[in-house]
Amino acid sequence: MTGNDIIDLQLAATESNWRRKGYLEKVFTPAEQELITAATDPDVMVWLLWSGKEAAYKIFNRVSRQRIYAPQKWEVMPLVWQKDQISGSIKGAGASYAFSSKLTAEYIHTVAVVSGINPAVLPVRIMEAAADDACLRHTGFMNHQESLRKEEGLPVVMNRAGHSCIASISHHGRYWSVVRMQQHQGAVSIKSFMAVTSPGFSGSAGRP
């Protein structure tokens, strides 16, 4: 199982005021609030933690089929910082996930997976494109026999034989991302694609 979340930091800075009274207490655990207070860049820490909660919720929603979202019940603990890569754990609702985040000046992209699977993704190609099947095939994210579809309202990559693999989609501002799980010779890996979306693209992503 995997979930991903992309945050356009430019848009987040203008559409959300996390400093408003009571917001941190409503969304983040006491331990997470300490991380935000102590951070060199509190804004980045807020959105890093938020993206972890979003990615974890997508896994939980797929497994449980429950749409109850209570962000404070998920605790994101960044453990390792290596330049622009952050990894750690997310715990909540009786589950534990591993995550890996890519941090740039423009966006934060987080991938969460069930424990036991490496959340690190294969190299990501970023391009300006429409977010559609043709683009995903052109970049090698899917082959010519695959398409991005939904099963019971949840994204999957499906081949012509009707076999599917789990996928996760996220869109925020200028960025659109999709990740999928794939298995080869018994090893499970995460494949990811990100696009700078064309003007007028319609997508959805939860933001406070």
Outline the secondary-structure elements.
Elements: E1 2-8, H1 9-15, H2 23-27, H3 30-38, H4 42-64, E2 75-82, E3 85-92, E4 95-103, E5 107-114, E6 126-129, H5 133-138, E7 146-151, E8 154-159, E9 164-172, E10 175-184, E11 187-197
Parallel strand pairs: 6-11
Antiparallel strand pairs: 1-5, 2-3, 3-4, 4-5, 7-8, 8-9, 9-10, 10-11
Count the strands?
A: 11
How many distinct helices? 5
Structural class: alpha+beta
Poorly predicted segments? 199-208
Major sheet? 6 strands, mixed
Instruction: Sum up the overall morphology in one term.
Output: globular
Give the H and E element order.
Answer: EHHHHEEEEEHEEEEE
GO molecular function: holo-[acyl-carrier-protein] synthase activity; magnesium ion binding
Protein name: 4-phosphopantetheinyl transferase family protein
Organism: Chitinophaga solisilvae
Keywords: Transferase
How would you characterize the overall build of this protein?
This protein has helices at 9-15, 23-27, 30-38, 42-64, 133-138; strands at residues 2-8, 75-82, 85-92, 95-103, 107-114, 126-129, 146-151, 154-159, 164-172, 175-184, 187-197. It has 208 residues and is α+β, with helices and mostly antiparallel strands. It has one domain (2-197): Ribosomal Protein L22, Chain A (Alpha-Beta Complex). It has 5 helices and 11 strands. β7 and β8 (154-159) form a beta hairpin. Residues 199-208 have low confidence and may be disordered. α3 (30-38) packs antiparallel against α4. It starts with a strand and ends in an 11-residue tail after the last strand. The protein has a 6-stranded mixed β-sheet with strand order 6-11-10-9-8-7. It has a 5-stranded antiparallel β-sheet with strand order 1-5-4-3-2. The longest helix is centred in the first third of the chain and has 23 residues, at 42-64. The chain is globular and about 50 Å long.
